[in-house]
Each structure stands twice: as structure tokens, then as C-alpha cells.
């Protein structure tokens, strides 16, 4: 049995730019980002819909330190390398990038995606990097989230049982 190491999808932003913007490679690159701490049905549904907007799906993954700054000291539940492995194992995810900053703006500027996507809790006009993507003729989407699925709620449910 030939099993590919999912972490082979963990690459640099420069690698993605070379791979997706090479001459003769007219592929539409979609970028999204998040913590993806406890991967659940809502995440997978969201990522599948992101992938449907183009041919290459790049996921920016907040580092452990970034997640702590954003979500609090008790997060993340899973370490960044483990979160990256699980994301990369999904067929719909083509590349994973771990970033240290609180926002993916640097990654978006380097990767230069054709499509930028966030969950529906982000209005399109406030999506970080949206202006950069639109200025290059790209598209920015805020996709509705699958109701009833939340990492925070899942953590609460586990803690109370």
C-alpha cells in the first residue's frame, strides 16, 4: 500500500506562488485560514465549499502561539503540527501553511490567491486581505457556516460530560 505523507502538503508561501502562477498553469487558487483546532463536520463542509470555488485550495493555519493570542491560554487543544496533518490529509486541501501572525495578511500578499474565503461570521468588506485580492481582480467570499457546529461549543460539551 502506497500512503502519501499528508505533511508533504505543508509548504512555504513562495512554493505555492511558484506552483500556482507558473506559465501554462492557469489554475484558480483559493485561500482560506483559521485555527481548525478540533476538526468537525462544519470545518469539512466549509473546506469542501472553498475548494469548489477553484482548483487549488490553500489553507493558512494559525500557529499555536497565534491561536493562544486569539482564543486564550487554554487553546489550542491540538498542536499545530497535528492540526496541519489532519487538514493536509483531507483530499480537498492542496496545501497547508502555518503562520505566526494573528492575521494571514503576509501570506495572502505572498500567495496572491485568485479567491479569498472566510466563514459567514466575517462580512466580505472586513475580511483581512480582501482589498489586496480585489485589487488584482480576485474574488472575496464570506460563506455561510453550517449551523450547529462550533469548536468552542464542542469543547464546552466535552468538558461538561
Widest β-sheet, arrangement of strands: 3-2-1-4-5
Taking all residues together, what is the mean pLDDT? 90
How much of the sequence lies in strands comes to 15-25%
The separation of the N and C termini measures 39 Å
Spans of at least 5 consecutive residues with low confidence? none
Total helical elements: 7
* Alpha-carbon Rg, integer: 15 Å
User: Percentage of helical residues?
Assistant: 25-40%
- Quick one: biggest sheet? 5 strands, parallel
Structural class based on helices, strands and sheet pairing: alpha/beta
User: What series of H and E elements makes up the topology?
Assistant: HEHEHHEHEHEH
Q: Give the strand tally.
A: 5
Shape designation: globular
Notable features of this structure?
161 residues
Give an overview in words.
- This protein has 161 residues and is an alpha/beta fold.
- It contains 7 helices and 5 strands, in the order αβαβααβαβαβα.
- The chain has helices spanning 13-20, 41-51, 64-71, 80-88, 105-111, 130-135, 151-160, and strands spanning 29-34, 56-62, 95-99, 115-119, 139-143.
- It has a 5-stranded parallel beta sheet, sandwiched between helices.
- The radius of gyration is 15 Å and the shape is globular.
- The model has no long low-confidence stretch (mean pLDDT 90).
Give the helix/strand layout.
Elements: H1 13-20, E1 29-34, H2 41-51, E2 56-62, H3 64-71, H4 80-88, E3 95-99, H5 105-111, E4 115-119, H6 130-135, E5 139-143, H7 151-160
Parallel strand pairs: 1-2, 1-4, 2-3, 4-5
Amino acid at each position: 500500500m502506497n500512503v502519501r505523507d499528508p505533511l508533504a502538503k505543508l509548504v512555504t508561501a513562495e512554493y505555492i506562488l511558484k506552483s500556482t502562477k507558473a506559465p501554462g498553469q492557469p489554475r484558480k487558487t483559493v485561500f482560506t485560514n483559521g485555527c481548525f483546532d478540533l476538526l468537525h463536520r462544519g470545518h469539512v463542509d466549509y473546506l469542501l465549499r472553498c475548494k469548489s470555488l477553484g482548483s487549488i485550495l490553500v489553507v493558512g493555519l494559525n500557529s499555536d502561539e497565534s491561536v493562544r493570542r486569539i482564543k486564550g491560554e487554554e487553546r489550542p487543544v491540538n498542536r499545530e503540527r497535528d492540526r496541519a496533518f489532519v487538514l493536509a490529509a483531507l483530499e480537498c486541501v492542496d496545501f497547508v501553511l502555518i503562520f505566526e501572525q494573528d492575521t494571514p495578511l503576509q501570506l495572502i500578499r505572498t500567495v496572491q490567491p485568485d479567491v479569498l474565503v472566510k466563514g459567514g461570521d466575517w462580512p466580505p468588506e472586513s475580511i483581512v486581505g480582501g482589498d489586496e485580492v480585489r485589487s488584482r481582480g480576485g474574488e472575496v467570499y464570506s460563506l455561510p457556516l453550517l449551523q450547529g457546529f462550533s469548536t468552542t461549543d464542542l469543547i464546552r460539551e466535552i468538558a461538561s460530560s
